[in-house]
UniProtKB/TrEMBL annotation:
It holds the Pfam family Guanylate_kin. It is an enzyme of class 2 (transferase). PANTHER family: GUANYLATE KINASE, GUANYLATE KINASE-RELATED. The lineage of its organism: Eukaryota, Metazoa, Ecdysozoa, Arthropoda, Hexapoda. Belongs to the guanylate kinase family. This is guanylate kinase.
Length: 203
């Protein structure tokens, strides 16, 4: 079945390559055009959190069963709680007329490619591993062990992203403004039914 609404826009690439930086800029410039899917979690709601808005709150047994039925694009466990993005949540954003933005790892990319969600795959590549390491160190968000692990995984992710057919565009994020211009150009070429119209006139 051909789905109505704009295709989901998937960002993937090594940790530190600049995915969040680029997608935040896109969301800031076009707040009405893009949206995020609502994730599922088995953790308890915090005060003020609404089911279906902040998360779809569920229990482990149900979530495991849904994962086994193939309903999830990706899942992860943090401090004993499961989190995940369901196909349904991505479809919901699409039905609202917005482009659903996803920032996922390559296992998630492999999963979403097996669905009928027809995603546009944007691979964000660092200029070099050395520069990636410099940026991760400057970001100062990881302990040394976690940083080393991210750099190890980065090589595999770069290999996957560079294999023909695994993405629709590779953006080398050397100069941020140039990388963002490439992203905007790709988006406006490929999401015609969701043509970005800036809410601010200055570019
Ligand atoms: N073109 C660029 N030049 C220099 N620094 C950059 C550039 N793009 C992003 N950065 C910086 O590099 C760091 C990593 O970027 P960001 O956090 O966006 O990466 P990410 O791919 O989202 O990482 P993660 O997967 O770990 O969330 C940030 O501190 C960001 O400000």
């Amino acid at each position: 079945m051909v789905q109505k609404g704009p295709r989901p826009l998937v960002f993937f690439g090594p940790s530190g390559s600049g995915k969040s930086t680029l997608l935040k800029r896109l969301l800031k410039e076009y707040p009405d055009k893009f949206g995020f899917s609502v994730s599922h979690t088995t953790r308890n709601p915090r005060p003020g959190e609404k089911d279906g808005v902040h998360y779809h709150f569920t229990v482990k047994e149900d979530m495991i069963a849904a994962v086994e039925r193939g309903e999830f694009i990706e899942t992860a466990t943090f401090s004993g709680n499961m989190y995940g993005t369901s196909k349904r949540a991505v479809e919901d954003v699409r039905r609202s007329g917005k482009t659903c933005i996803l920032d996922i790892d390559i296992e998630g990319v492999k999963q979403i490619r097996r669905t009928d969600l027809d995603p546009l795959l944007v691979f964000i590549m660092p200029p070099s591993i050395e520069e990636l390491e410099r940026r991760l160190r400057a970001r100062n968000t990881e302990e040394e062990d976690a940083l080393k692990k991210r750099l190890e995984v980065a090589t595999k992710e770069i290999e996957y992203g560079q294999e023909p057919g695994n993405c629709h565009i590779t953006i080398v994020n050397e100069n941020l403004d140039k990388a963002y211009a490439e992203l905007k150009n790709f988006v406006s070429q490929n999401l015609k039914d969701n043509e970005p119209e800036p809410n601010a006139s200055q570019e």
